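Title: Comparing notes on inverse folding

I've been comparing how different people in this forum approach sequence design from structure. To keep things fair, I'm posting one structure and asking everyone to reply with a full sequence. Here's the target:
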């Protein structure tokens, strides 16, 4: 009678808790790329596409201030409210995940918005339309220089409006285990939505592009941290 030998060590499948999370690697890579972005000077170059010494022509345009700012933000809150209600009264795709995932989704979404809001309150970076180059009074100061006053109103970093799209990156983490295709769809939609809303603010002179990219990173990393905590303290062993 022969006995089967155990599979070689290299062929063994690591338990989920011991695997390197690709989402964490994406977060680390994103931080490195954003650190390098500040050395390119692209923030000012992109701002000059839409602004000059006379200011930003689209700053008060109805399409950008009402429809793509106020109404878009309201739509974001409506969707967020529906998702939070879905924690206790699951609807549609919310039924595909358990209570633990639904609760983590709500926490990740609200925590992402809170992190962006708190970061804005703590930062002294002003908006492009505040700069003397664009008709304001402030001087350009990198957002890396914490505590340095640029002479403007400050509190413009990171981009708050973009969080109405990037905040929904939390959806990817909610469904990536049980419905990966849906998770990828949500990921693409959140990225496109956040970038579109961020570009609107770019055109109005309300934010530099780095402000919006940092918002994406903060929302992604916050959502990953909430999901990692769920897996560590609440999920059953794989």
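Reply #1:
Here's my take.
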């Amino acid at each position: 009678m022969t006995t089967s030998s155990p599979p070689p060590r290299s062929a063994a499948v690591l338990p989920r808790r011991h695997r390197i999370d690709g989402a964490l690697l994406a977060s680390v890579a994103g931080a490195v790329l954003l650190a390098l972005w500040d050395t390119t000077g692209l923030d000012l170059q992109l701002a000059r596409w839409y602004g000059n010494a006379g200011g930003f022509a689209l700053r008060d345009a109805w399409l950008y201030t009402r429809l793509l700012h106020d109404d878009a933000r309201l739509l974001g809150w409506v969707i967020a409210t529906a998702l939070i209600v879905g924690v206790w009264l699951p609807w549609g795709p919310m039924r595909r995940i358990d209570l633990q995932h639904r609760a983590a989704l709500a926490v990740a979404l609200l925590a992402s918005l809170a992190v962006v809001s708190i970061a804005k309150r703590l930062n002294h970076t002003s908006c492009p339309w505040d700069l003397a180059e664009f008709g304001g009074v402030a001087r350009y100061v990198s957002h890396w220089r914490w505590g340095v006053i640029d002479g403007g109103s400050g509190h413009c970093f990171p981009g708050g409006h973009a969080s109405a799209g990037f905040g929904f990156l939390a959806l990817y983490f909610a469904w990536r285990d049980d419905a990966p295709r849906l998770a990828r769809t949500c990921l693409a939609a959140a990225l496109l939505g956040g970038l579109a809303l961020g570009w609107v603010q770019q055109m109005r002179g309300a934010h530099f592009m780095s402000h919006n990219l940092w918002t994406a990173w903060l929302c992604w990393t916050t959502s990953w941290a909430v999901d990692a905590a769920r897996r560590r303290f609440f999920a059953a062993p794989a």
